[in-house]
Amino acid sequence: MTQYLADIKSLVDNIASAGSTVDTEDIILYILNGLPPSYQSFKTAIRTMLTPISLDNLYALLLSEEINLASDASRTTAIPDPTTAFYSIRGRGRRTRGKGPHNLPNSQRPNPHASTICQICFKKGHAASSCWHISNLSYTPSANTSQPTALAAGNTRNTSEWFLDSSASSHLTNSFDNLSVSAPYQGQDGVIIGDGSTVSIANSGTGLLSLPDRKLKLSQLFHSPDLQYNLISISQLLKDNNISIVFDPNGFFLKDLTTQEVLLQGPCRSGLYKLPTTSQDTSHHAYSTARAINFSWHNRLGHPNNSILHLLASLNPHLNIDLTNSCTTCNVSKAHKLLFTKSLSRRTNALELIHSDL
């Protein structure tokens, strides 16, 4: 599923690089039409929604549906689930010690929607995207609303930092916010950390790790509020996302196995390989990309003149618009007496190739 969505994103990016745009509704329709028949009920549910769904929500729901279908198939064929984070069996009939959860019988599997906690009103049963107070900027939770312990514990740590761990067989996080799909963990096992002590597991599920150009799936993600760091299982990350990681003394490179494109470069600090991720603060998410590419706003806005760029920069100081660079495309397009550059494009019918002058 991750590869399927990455292929669609690549197609949309190619269309955008050609100077055209694709509506979000068209992208969602294209994604749904390409799903196999086993997703028929999922497609019906999405198409009959009263309010349009965003691409981010659709991405998370598709990954969740993929996991559910795989789980149903494994139960049908009576194949047990693989062992999870740091899990080891001490013998038949004996208790297992730490490092992972038990496989729950079907009758004991919790409802994944029952543990969803809204990040706006802190109530269970719905996500923030469907909260009644999402449009009310002045809304604050009532004083008697008790924030979950997992969230309170996560606020005392830098939950945006992730570290690669070659010894972990599943992903571990200290923040409930990092789980996009979750369920309360009902087993008795815990996670054995480096000093030999055992910490409990509060929730389990899946998550998404945002990179500048892609989102990585984090399956088998376990939430333990007592952990000090967020840990990524290297083996699980590579298997779920069809990527490779190259390490050197100064850092690491994360590459796509199909295209060999470098998706991310990270440093090595004090022997730890930290994974740099994009900010999860939605109020600044749009600006983070603008800071990375100074000259991109001139291209995004259709090559406007400097007076328009000055006006935009004065209205919104968060936009890092570089007003000193000179656009080669604008200069060449105004030189009408220059010869056209040699083109390899050949068309046989009318309107097969259209040149647009903005």
Highlighted features:
358 residues, six-stranded mixed β-sheet, four-stranded mixed β-sheet, 17% strand, GAG-pre-integrase_dom, Retrovirus-related Pol polyprotein from transposon TNT 1-94, PolX-like_BBD
Folded structure, characterized:
This protein has helices at 2-17, 24-33, 40-47, 55-76, 149-154, 234-241, 282-292, 296-300, 306-315, 328-334; strands at 162-165, 171-173, 181-184, 190-192, 198-200, 203-210, 215-223, 230-233, 243-248, 251-256, 262-269, 272-275. The chain has 358 residues and is an alpha+beta fold. It has a 6-stranded mixed β-sheet with strand order 8-1-12-11-10-9, covered by helices on one side. Strands 2-7-6-3 form a 4-stranded mixed β-sheet. The two termini are 38 Å apart. The relative contact order is 0.09. Residues 78-114, 143-158 and 279-294 have low confidence and may be disordered.
Number of strands: 12
Alpha-carbon distance between the two ends: 38 Å
Number of helices: 10
Structural class: alpha+beta
Strand content: 15-25%
Strand order of the largest sheet: 8-1-12-11-10-9
Taken in chain order, the helices and strands follow as: HHHHHEEEEEEEEHEEEEHHHH
Write a concise synopsis of the structure shown.
Residues 271-334 form the GAG-pre-integrase domain. This protein has 358 residues and is of the alpha+beta class.
Topology:
Elements: H1 2-17, H2 24-33, H3 40-47, H4 55-76, H5 149-154, E1 162-165, E2 171-173, E3 181-184, E4 190-192, E5 198-200, E6 203-210, E7 215-223, E8 230-233, H6 234-241, E9 243-248, E10 251-256, E11 262-269, E12 272-275, H7 282-292, H8 296-300, H9 306-315, H10 328-334
Parallel strand pairs: 1-8, 2-7
Antiparallel strand pairs: 1-12, 3-6, 4-5, 6-7, 9-10, 10-11, 11-12
InterPro entries: GAG-pre-integrase_dom, PolX-like_BBD
Protein name: Retrovirus-related Pol polyprotein from transposon TNT 1-94
Biased composition (Basic residues): 91-100
